[in-house]
Design the sequence.
């Protein structure tokens, strides 16, 4: 008697994909991604080093910025191995379990960023609406507790995802549409009942992005009301200017998310390259832009960078003078 194997099929490896239609220009794509990674990693490490080293930056606003930089480094390092392997070494295979691990970390850090931006909006709300109690309302232990809560929330809500994917059979092939592993991409090659995955995925998106963005918007409504109550126009502009870096960071994070959602909802016939490019923008652009935004718009960060730069120049000149005969 023939015994049928009913064990759900799970591929040993999955095949990653670059950008459709751009195989000829893959070297340029690799160069662009390397530039993105360098700016993101060096920029975020610089911000972390400045906050640790400069006593003027040991304030709640910059502690939250440090948490954001750590998270952006997590996003960059989560995608780095497979992206570089795909575009620089033309190695497109990833183990199934390794893919699940990468998927978990990419989504966890992405959802954490939303929570961090919410915490930073609360920081701006307290700084503008109740400046006299700013330091007492946001002591170091409370900032640490907020960071741990954001981490715990993201970890616990994303933790079931690898197990929900692991239970599914994969009989539609093993070719993914990106150079990294995402939950929606894995669902396209799964052939089992994915209703639980889709429903839970929708719940997580609403529970994180939906709630966080609502409270960020509410905080800025209250901030705007407080700013408009200030009599001096100069003071109004000064108060709003302290929020500009955060507003830009929020836009850099949420605009690509909204664009991806709109394309999936209203432009389902879009070429594959559109979906792939938007996913790349969603993951690569915010970590890079955040460093640029805060370096350009935040005076204290800019001063710290210039101070380090001039100090290194002075040391270089001193060494040159010492070496002269």
Sequence:
């Amino acid at each position: 008697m023939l015994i049928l194997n009913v064990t759900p099929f799970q591929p040993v490896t999955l095949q990653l994909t670059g950008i459709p239609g751009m195989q000829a220009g893959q070297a340029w794509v690799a160069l662009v991604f390397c530039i993105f990674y360098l700016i993101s990693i060096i920029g975020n490490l610089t911000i972390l080093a400045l906050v640790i080293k400069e006593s003027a930056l040991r304030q709640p606003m910059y502690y939250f910025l440090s948490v954001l930089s750590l998270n952006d480094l997590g996003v960059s390092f989560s995608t780095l191995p497979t992206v570089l392997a795909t575009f620089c070494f033309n190695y497109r295979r990833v183990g199934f379990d390794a893919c699940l691990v990468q998927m978990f970390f990419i989504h966890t850090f992405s959802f954490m960023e939303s929570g961090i931006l919410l915490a930073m909006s609360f920081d701006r709300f307290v700084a503008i609406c109740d400046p006299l109690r700013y330091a007492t309302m946001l002591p170091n232990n409370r900032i640490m507790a907020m960071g741990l809560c954001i981490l715990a929330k993201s970890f616990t809500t994303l933790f079931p995802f690898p197990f929900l994917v692991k239970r599914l059979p994969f009989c539609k092939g093993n070719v993914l549409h990106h150079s990294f592993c995402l939950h929606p991409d894995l669902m396209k090659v799964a052939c089992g009942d994915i209703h639980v995955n889709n429903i839970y995925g929708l719940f997580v998106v609403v529970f994180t992005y939906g709630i966080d963005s609502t409270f960020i918007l509410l905080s800025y409504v209250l901030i705007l009301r407080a700013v408009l109550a200030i009599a001096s126009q100069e003071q109004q502009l000064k108060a709003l200017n302290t929020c500009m870096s955060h507003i830009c960071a929020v836009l850099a994070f949420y605009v690509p998310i909204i664009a991806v959602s709109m394309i999936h909802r209203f432009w389902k016939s879009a070429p594959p390259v559109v979906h792939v490019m938007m996913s790349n923008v969603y993951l690569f652009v915010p970590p890079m832009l955040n460093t640029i935004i805060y370096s350009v718009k935040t005076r204290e960060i800019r001063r710290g960078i210039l101070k380090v730069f001039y100090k290194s120049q002075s040391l270089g000149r001193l060494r040159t003078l010492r070496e002269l005969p």
